[in-house]
Task: structure prediction
Amino acid sequence: MYKSEGLKILVSGHSYILDDSYAGGVILKGLRDLGALPLRADITDRDYAVKHSPDLCPTCRWVMSRELVGSIIQHRFQVDGIVLVTAFPCGPDSMVNDILARKIQGVPVLQLVLDSQTGTAGVETRLESFVDIIRMKKGELT
Result:
């Protein structure tokens, strides 16, 4: 998938969020509609991910979060951007994603918090802005 044309965006979120048609589906479809290829961080080599997660987040104690952190480590230099998805009010995700947003260098990061809003326009607008920023950085937009 990394050899495919177009932008590649790593989407880091728990499977129960990304598999949900309303929550994660809006994100994955939104990225595809913008011409980007969404890659899921929750689909990864779990042994590698857990082993390497302390490289970015040495104090992370939650197994599911360590898997996502390790997946980001494994894939971060092969993607054009990373979307960190948090379902409000998930305490562990909010802490881990804040740490990641501060520590990840060299690739644009969007922290996307999903709340109880019934519309999808806010998510779609943030994704569109994020993709535009990446395209400007790459010189594809002026």
User: Anything to note?
Assistant: The longest helix spans residues 121-137. The helical segments are 15-18, 24-33, 46-52, 63-75, 91-103, 121-137. Strands lie at 7-12, 36-40, 81-87, 109-114. The first strand starts at residue 7 and ends at 12.
